[in-house]
Amino acid sequence: MKRIQSACLEQTIRFAAKDAPTAAEAARMTDAEYRHYLVQLDRGRTAYKVLEERPQEDGSLLIRIKRQYNSYDTGEYLD
Fold it and tell me: What is the helix, strand, coil percentage profile of the chain, to 5?
């Protein structure tokens, strides 16, 4: 029988604002969405580690994140 000992997801997520009149406004909207996403992870007690945040010219934000998969132990993934 096999059992999962630890699990972690590595994701690349792009946060982009729709219908923003300027790149600055798009950047503000995407930053708010990104912060909300992190709050949701914290609220759900999901372990995570942001590896990279890359603002794009169009105001979008590209992040690389490692996060806990379901409620499995993350082992050494997030150290």
Answer: 25, 30, 45
